[in-house]
Amino acid sequence: MEVLDEFDINIIKELEKDGRMAFSAIATSLKISNTMVHQRINRLIDQGVITGIKPVINEKKIGYDWGAFTGITLNKDADSKRVIDELKEIPEITECYFITGSYTLYIKMIAKDHEHMRKLLYEKIDNIPGIAKTDSIIELGCAFKRNVTF
């Protein structure tokens, strides 16, 4: 487990506000050197604490009005790697988790409309060999989404 100190936490908080923020702006805000910010961010990336700085896309703004969470039951759990590799080929699937309980995998997917969602489920996902069944819950909007706070 990586131990984060106060400087690491404050740098991450600044990046949470705006991932494009210049290192010099972070340094000024936190009253530390630009070099320290640079070194800390590189270390956090090298340690895997920060896994990337990328845009967060508002899916609704680009025409994806439907979202669903789908539990996937496999015929054999040993098929999970192959099934996951096939799920990765479907761009509308944005997240995939191993879970306990009734399902082997749990995915988040987005679609433009109900017909698009139907095609994703019945023509793409259900046709992946090894999937026994799916169970979907339609998402009606995200109340909030965030990283863990310190």
UniProtKB/TrEMBL annotation:
The keyword DNA-binding applies. The gene is asnC_2. This is Regulatory protein AsnC. GO terms for biological process: response to amino acid. Signal peptide: none annotated. GO terms for molecular function: sequence-specific DNA binding. Residues 4-65 form the HTH asnC-type domain. GO terms for cellular component: cytosol. SMART domains: HTH_ASNC. The keyword Transcription applies. Keywords: DNA-binding, Transcription, Transcription regulation. It comes from Flavobacterium succinicans. It comes from the Bacteria. InterPro entries: AsnC-type_HTH_dom, Dimeric_a/b-barrel, Tscrpt_reg_AsnC-like, Tscrpt_reg_AsnC/Lrp_C, WH-like_DNA-bd_sf, WH_DNA-bd_sf.
